[in-house]
Amino acid sequence: MRRLMLVAAILGTVSAAHAADLSDLPILRGSVSEGLSKTTRSWDGAYVGGNFGYTTDSSDFGQSVVGLTNYIFRDSVLQGPTSTWSLLSKNTAQGTNFGGFIGRNWQWYDAILSLEGTYTYFNNLKASSSGYNALDIVNPPGDVQPVGVTNHYLTTLTGSASAQVKDMITLRGRVGWDGGDFMPYMFAGAAVGRMDVSRTVSSDVKLRQDATVTDAFGNIITITGTPQQVVAQSQTQGQHKTNAFVAGWVAGLGIEYCIWDGLFARVEYEYVKFSPVMNTSVTLNNARVGLGYKF
């Protein structure tokens, strides 16, 4: 009996020691990870940086010389028919761009709002178009002809236009999401571009009057007249604007990556649409990479 009690006492001591050791196990102290978690990083604050990239310029010259042809043919029977001619067409140009940006982020939990200003310089970004059109305008509305006479206005137009975007500034609002080291964002805002725009057109108009008569045998004969120059509508007009400031709007997408501390890199796409200047519409597609620092 005495031996049995001694064995029970020893087993109780060993069990108590094991229970004390179990409390030191890591799994019981909560040291096991609860799973993957997002890196905590603050995007709040002011920032500044620079960027460079590639631009595609799409310029629509379809209506560029309409104002000039309307002036040449003003108060004449040719203004209506010639105003519908699409003498020029769209054209594209490509070039590099570089510039800088400055802005301020405000962060609420995972949401980030920003206000950002940018400057972009375009390297030799110039698009142009030229065209030629000839038409025989017969008895246009409003024209008066003698009986049996058909008026043929042999009209030729030759024109050209160009637009070079030099640089631009934008004011953009951004909406981003805190993805830890990454911040995807989208933006929209206003743009002002500086351009050189030109257009010119030359007209040549000759009037040929064909007469229809009946001979002694009752045959109808058409006598083709000799073309005569219409001096008032045969001229050259041109217009050129240097450093014209043109308003527009901008929108796009991008992503930033925190490299170290406040240093970050960005990649973005930007679409820019400018208001027409001298009936020429310019659209830009910009792709950029940049490097910045958040204070």
Automatic annotation (TrEMBL):
Occurrences of domain Outer membrane protein beta-barrel (ranges): 8-295
SUPFAM superfamilies documented for this protein: OMPA-like
GO cellular-component term (any): cell outer membrane
Subcellular compartments: Cell outer membrane
Pfam families with a match to the protein in the record: OMP_b-brl (PF13505)
Main location: membrane
Protein's name according to its UniProt entry: Opacity protein-like surface antigen
Protein source organism: Bradyrhizobium daqingense
